[in-house]
Amino acid sequence: xxxxxxxxxxxxxxxxxxxxxxxxxxxxxxxxxxxxxxxxxxxxxxxxxxxxxxxxxxxxxxxxxxxxxxxxxxxxxxxxxxxxxxxxxxxxxxxxxxxxxxxxxxxxxxxxxxxxxxxxxxxxxxxxxxxxxxxxxxxxxxxxxxxxxxxxxxxxxxxxxxxxxxxxxxxxxxxxxxxxxxxxxxxxxxxxxxxxxxxxxxxxxxxxxxxxxxxxxxxxxxxxxxxxxxxxxxxxxxxxxxxxxxxxxxxxxxxxxxxxxxxxxxxxxxxxxxxxxxxxxxxxxxxxxxxxxxxx
Amino acid sequence: xxxxxxxxxxxxxxxxxxxxxxxxxxxxxxxxxxxxxxxxxxxxxxxxxxxxxxxxxxxxxxxxxxxxxxxxxxxxxxxxxxxxxxxxxxxxxxxxxxxxxxxxxxxxxxxxxxxxxxxxxxxxxxxxxxxxxxxxxxxxxxxxxxxxxxxxxxxxxxxxxxxxxxxxxxxxxxxxxxxxxxxxxxxxxxxxxxxxxxxxxxxxxxxxxxxxxxxxxxxxxxxxxxxxxxxxxxxxxxxxxxxxxxxxxxxxxxxxxxxxxxxxxxxxxxxxxxxxxxxxxxxxxxxxxxxxxxxxxxxxxxxxxxxxxxxxxxxxxxxxxxxxxxxxxxxxxxxxxxxxxxxxxxxxxxxxxxxxxxxxxxxxxxxxxxxx
Lengths: 296, 372
Description:
The complex is a heterodimer.
Chain A: H1 2-7, H2 9-39, H3 50-57, E1 59-63, E2 69-73, H4 74-106, H5 109-120, H6 127-138, H7 143-150, H8 162-187, H9 190-198, H10 203-231, H11 236-240, H12 248-257, H13 261-289
Antiparallel strand pairs in A: 1-2
Helix pairs in contact in A: 2-13, 3-13, 4-8, 4-10, 8-10, 9-10, 12-13
Chain B: E1 3-14, E2 17-28, E3 32-36, H1 43-51, E4 58-63, E5 66-67, E6 78-81, H2 93-103, H3 108-121, H4 137-149, E7 155-159, H5 167-184, E8 187-192, H6 195-201, E9 204-209, E10 212-217, H7 219-224, H8 229-234, E11 239-247, E12 250-253, E13 256-259, E14 269-275, E15 281-283, E16 290-299, E17 304-310, E18 313-319, E19 328-332, E20 338-342, H9 358-363
Helix pairs in contact in B: 2-3, 2-4, 3-4
C-alpha cells in the first residue's frame, strides 16, 4: 500500500478530487453555460445580441421632483445605482468592521469566541426575516421612531430612502467583512508588534506600519465578500427602499418573474463579466502592490 | 567601566508565580554579558524588563543613571534581536533594516547609506531587495541583527538568537556576533540556555535558576569556581560528591583525605566537592587511592568518556588513555582538580552519573536539539 501510494501519489489525489470535479461541472460550469446560451438567444433559441444591446440602450422617462421628466438609460442607471450603494455599504462595513475585528483579535480567548458567535448568529436566520425585522425597526411608526419620540427627539424618515437600503446591506454583509479581517489579525505574530515598538514605533505607528499592511489580505477578501454580493443583491431594496431604488438584482428578478428568461440571463451575464473584470483588476493590483496579494 | 544598566531588587510574578525573585545586576558599558540558565529560570523575563516589554512588580531599572521603569520600549535606547527574528514579512530586506530609520524620518539619502553599511557588515549587501521570507535562517538572523543595530543603540538585547540555527552555522554566528560587538562597542546582553555558547562568547556570565541569580563572573570564574552544585552541573560536566572540610587545605571524601586549595570553612563543615571529569588521572588501583570499576566507556573522538563506579557513586571521567569496561582502576586527584563549595539547596541534586547513558539521552531527546 505504502509503496504503491508513493509511486503514484497522483492517483489517490485524483480519486479524492473526482466528486468535487463532477459537482463543479454539474452545478457551476453547466449553469454558467446555460446563462451564456440564454443571454445570446431569443425566445425561439435563435442566436441574437439583442438582449445584450437592450441592456445598454433601453431607455425610460423619470419624473423629477420639479415635475419635468428626463430620459435615462434604464439598466445603466440601475447598474450604476447598484454599484454606488454597494460601494457605500462596503466602505461602511470596512470602517465599522476593521476596528471591531482588531478589538476582537486583542481580546481574551473566551471573549473572542463569544464575539465570533454573536457575529455569526444573525447569519443563521433567514435573510428575508432579517429584512422584515429592519422594516419594523425603520418604519415611520416603527421601533426606532417610537424610541426617538419617547426620548423627545422627534422622528426621522428613513424607510424608503437610500439610507435604509444601505443600513440593510451593511447589516446583512457585516459578518463577511469582520470575519476575514479578524482571522488574519488573530493570527498576527505578537512578536512583530513588539519588534515594531522596540524599533521606535508608538501605538499609532505600529498600527499604520505593521498591523494594517499585514492585515491587507483580510481586508481585500472582506471587501470582495461584501462588495460582490451587495452589487447583485435584491429584495432589501424592495422592502427597505419601498421599491424606489430598483437595483440590478431586482431587475434580474423582475425579468425572470415576468418570464423574460433571455433578457434576465443577459443582465446576469453582463453583471458577471463586469464583476469578473473588476476581480481580475483587484487581483492584478494586489499581487503587485499589497502584501500577501499574490498568495492564495 | 561605567555602569550602563543597573537592575535593583527586581521581582516579577506572572499569575501569582514568581519568575524573578529580587534580582540585582550591574551591566557595564561595552561588555558582552550573557544570562544563562535552563528554561523558566527568568533570563528572558529579565531581558524583556530591560527592553521595556515587561513591567517589574518591584525594583528599579536604571539606564545610564536614570530610572526607566515607566519609559515605553520605543523610547528606550535599547534594541532587541528576537528569538525567531520577528522580521516584517511585508517588507524586503532593505525596508526591514530601514524600518527604525523611517520612523525617525531621516532623509532618504542617509537611510540608504546607513542601511547599506549595515547590510555590508552582516554580509548581505546583495540581498537588499530580496523578500525576507525567501532567506535562510542564518540570513534572516543577520537581517535581524542589522535592523537592531542600525539605530546605533547603547545596548543590544539578544534573546536566544542562535537557537534556531544548526550547529555549524551557530558556531559561525557566535564568532561573528563577538566580532560585531567588539567593533561597534555596543553592550550586548545575550540570553541563552547553551553553556558552551555562553563560555565562548561572554565577558561576563550571569547564571540564573528559579528566578534567582546563582553566580556572576567571567567564564573562567564560573567554570573553575562554581558557587554551588547547580552552577557546577549546569556549566560543563561535574562529579559532585559529599565531603567534609577537615581544616584549611584538607578535605575528606570517598573515605580518603585530599589536599586542596580551598580555605575559609569551619572545621568539619560538610561541603560539596566538585571534580571536573577532565581533571581526573587514572592510576593503578593501589591502596590509598580511590578505586572503582569502569561500567561503560564511550569513544568521543578526542577522548574517552568513562563512567566509573566508586563505592556506588558513579563518576564521569574523561581521559585520553585507553580504558576498558569492567576494569578495576584507581584515580588520583591533584589539589587544583578539587573545588570545594558550600552546601546549598542544590546539594545532592546533581553530579552523580548513575542514571547517565548516551542512549537514554537520545531517547528522551529525539530531535537532538532542545528548544524552549
